[in-house]
Amino acid sequence: MIVRPVTQADRSAWDALYADYAAFYDAAQTPQMRARVWDWIMDPAHEVDGLVADADGTLIGFAHIRPFARPLASTTGLFLDDLFVAETARGTGAAQALIEAVRQHAEDAGHTSVRWMTAHDNVRARKVYDQVAAPIPFTTYDMDV
After folding, report:
1. What is the model's pLDDT at position 61?
2. How far apart are CA 121 and CA 26, in angstroms?
3. Alpha-carbon distances of 26 from 3, 4, 29, 34, 107, rounded to whole Å
4. Which residues of the chain have pLDDT under 50?
C-alpha cells in the first residue's frame, strides 16, 4: 500500500469511498455535493487537497486536508477534514499510513500542527488517533448560518 496525492484517474473510486464515508456518519450527501468537493480537490488554487491510500491499484482510503491560520501561535496548521478507510481494509494500517502522510505533508509545508475532529462514539478510529495524537481540552461548536 502507498499513500499518494489524489489524481483525476481516482474519481470513480474516490466517489464510492466518499459516499461510504457520508453513509458512515449518516450525512445527507448527493452526487452533486461530491462533485463539488472533487472539483475543490482538483483545483490547485483551492485550499482543499486530498491523499489516497492505494493498495495495488485499488483505493482503500482517503484524507482531505487544508491549511488554517493559528493566530495565537503565529503559525499555520493543517486541518484533516476527512479520513476514511473502506470497511474491508480496516486493520491494515491504512489509517495510520494516511495520518503519517498528512503529518509529513504538514511538516514539509512548514505547518506546526495537524488537527482533526471525530465523533465521540467513533471508538475504533479514536483508538488509532490516541496512538498518534492527543485530544485537546476544547469543545467544538457549530453554528448554522
Report:
1. 98
2. 13
3. 27, 28, 9, 15, 33
4. none
Separation in Å, CA 17 to CA 6, 53, 97, 110, 135: 13, 11, 17, 30, 26
Q: What is the pLDDT of residues 107-143, one digit of tens each?
A: 999 999 999 999 888 899 999 999 999 989 888 898 9
Pairing between strand 58-70 and 49-55? Answer: antiparallel
Q: What percent of the chain has pLDDT over 90?
A: 89
Q: Is-contact 14 38, C-beta < 8 A? A: yes
Max Cα-Cα span within the chain:
43
The Cα–Cα gap between 139 and 17 comes to 29
